[in-house]
């Protein structure tokens, strides 16, 4: 489960408190006061203004009404007053941040009020006050993502409406707003930021309990701008028509901001912050899933980083041994910088307990993808779903191979000496073995990328360290008992490798493993395009050139459309710059080439659905 947004203040600071929508009684915002302009307001600093109504009224003054007062100084004082009120846990601070922001905006946009130096200072105050406004509104429960930022003043309740632009998310998905602060993440090669107008945000979205393919708290990037714009949409008759609106942009879609004079200016963004937040606030299950695979709530789970978007091609990432989906954040962080990737692909992650035999996890992957796609196409077909690209690192590449090749009978023959129908097994065991050893290629996958995949096994699995690692894997007592009972009735029919106990995933990576050898000989489905990325940065005593875990000769796959050798180690391979470059090349190639499998093959789709039901 994803942790609280304040778990790691050194990474992404959140001085606001995240609360679920709808928000608390500090309701409805600031704009009823727009009719309360007054030229008789005494010339005093906002340091002395305690009333949120007075703060807004002063901010509404025209340049003539400001008289000799410096709007920059008035804005700064409003910001200072807001900070003091906030330190006292006084929710009126939000109104003072708004006052400071409106004055700064006027200074930036009106030549009569400012020279260039003033504009630069006003721009700093604008962003400082907007950050404070969002943080305090979050802290005091004043953000209603559907209706706007709602405030209570002495004059009544008023609202700053919110307009969203470019998101697949719905307004009700914006559950917690975190302005981005300084952060570090050693797993990210770069922090992809863009200078410009607006305050970059990490927005947290709470999962609905009915949703299957989302994590409990999912972060995504946004950029907020507060400015004078008309607002479309129905408004209640008792609400004032505002002259300000909070615009929230998707920085993966928008890089420029339209100006009032018709031009454009850069939109600020931080594309890496949500990825860093996810990495630093999500429990890593790499060792738990390896050593205690049966403690996880599911055998394997598909995770989406955005809502399903028709027309976008699924890009499915499958991690390797003693790892978890977060191992992909480095590569995903780099892919996010390509606009064409964001507009044409949607990222799916598959997580699974890596201590279990990978045949089981491969079956889970087939089931999860099949059920996800079936749920998205109940009423409308989507050809993009049948062009999926799947990327597997290390053992995840073996799961990938089992999505793009038919099993035939060779896998079963690596396990048993007799046909499955002749074995003595109860219906549950029969269905279990059938799902593992008999399948067709996924009708949804069109291209596969193997990254450091041990098609021929790894010498490490045979060595003492591999044997020791296997001993660390705890076995399921319930299923071990069932398998032992099955063996007792069929021991002579089972090949030696499987005749004693259920092998761990490490055992199945031994070069002499019969199932691994059979897998390597499986022919790919005719429509599949295959690519290999192979590490060559660390020689091994056994196996020759390698990435330190997988020899080059083991990582090679016959019939690959391309092969890229990268001088790095196994651990660094999936996020190495050369790997990023190669993945981008392949993804562009996938878009340029005509679809090979744009429509599902009925017999394959039916077979997958039947497998999922079992």
Automatic annotation (TrEMBL):
Domain AB hydrolase-1: 315-549
Keyword field contains Hydrolase: yes
Pfam families linked to this entry: Abhydrolase_6
TM spans (from-to): none
Keyword Lyase set for record: no
Keywords of the record: Hydrolase
Molecular-function GO terms, alphabetical: hydrolase activity
Region (Disordered): 593-614
Domain of life: Bacteria
Name of the molecule in the record: Alpha/beta hydrolase family protein
Organism encoding this protein: Rosistilla oblonga
